[in-house]
Amino acid sequence: MEPQALPDTSYAILGLITMPWPEPPSGYDLNKAVEGSIGYFWAPAKSQIYGELKRLTALGLIDEREIPQTNRPDKRVYTITPEGNAALQGWLTTRDEEPEEIKSTFLLKLFFGHRLSPQEILTKVREYREYSTATLAEYEAIERQIESHGGPQGPSLYPWMALMQGKAYATAGISWADAMLEHLSEGGNT
Q1: Using CA atoms, how far apart are residues 140 and 146, in angstroms rounded to an integer?
Q2: Cβ(11)–Cβ(56) under 8 Å?
Q3: 36 touches 28 (CB < 8 A)
Q4: Which of 34, 58, 90, 139 minimizes the number of CB atoms within 10 Å of its CB?
C-alpha cells in the first residue's frame, strides 16, 4: 500500500497500536494514549480515532477482536496485521517533502494587532507566555516520568526525542514572549 493512500492520522493509529502494550489496546486505550503522548503535537478528535479504527479494520491493516466483559459492554481490541506493518513502515520511511506548517490562531490574531489596543496586545503576549510556561511544566513532568522508568532508552527513546523538541518549542515560546514584552514595555509600536 502506498503511504499516501491514507491520512496521517491512520498511520498515527497504526503506530500507537505497535507501542508496547501489556495487552492489545482498545479504542479507549488509544484515545488515552493520544492524550498523553502524540496529542501534544497531533491531536485527532476522539470520534476520528474510532472512524480510523473502522477504516483500518476494513482495509485489513488491523485486526479487531471483541472481548467479553462482565458489568460492562464488551470491548474491542486491536492488533496490527502484517499488511498494516508494511504500510506503517512505508509511511515512516517516506521522505517528508513538505515543510512544517505552523497553524496558530494566536499568531494570526497577533498579525492583525493594529486592530487592538496596546493593553490587549500585552494581555495576549502574557497569556501566550503563561500557556508556554504551563506546557513546559507538563513536558518536564513527562520527562521526569520517563526518567523514573529507566530514562530515554529502548522504546522510550523516540517519544523522549519528540518530547525534547516540544520542550525546545515551549522554551522558545517563553523566550520570544519575554523579548516581545520587553520590546513593548520600551514603547515598541504600541
Answers
A1: 10
A2: no
A3: no
A4: 58
Tracing cell 507566555 back to the chain, one arrives at 129
pLDDT, tens digit, 9 for 90 and up, residues 124-173: 999 999 999 999 999 999 999 999 988 898 888 999 999 999 999 999 99
pTM: 0.73
Domain that holds residue 170: 105-185
Identify whether 100 is part of a domain: no
Task: Give CA separation, 165 vs 78, 122, 136, 143, 168, in Å.
Answer: 30, 27, 11, 12, 5
Verify that 119 and 174 share a domain, yes or no: yes
The Cα 94–Cα 4 span in angstroms is: 9
Q: Which of 93, 122, 146 is the last residue of a domain?
A: 93
Long-range contacts of 7-12 (CB under 8 A, 24+ apart): 7/52, 8/42, 9/42, 9/44, 9/48, 9/49, 9/52, 10/52, 10/55, 10/56, 10/61, 11/87, 11/88, 11/91, 11/92, 12/38, 12/42, 12/44
Both 88 and 110 in a single domain?
Answer: no
In terms of pLDDT, which residue wins out, 187 or 147?
147
Q: How much is the average pLDDT of 182-190?
A: 77
Same domain for 119 and 157, yes or no, is yes
Q: Which of 33, 60, 93 is the last residue of a domain?
A: 93
41, 109, 129, 187 from 176: Cα distances, Å: 20, 16, 8, 17
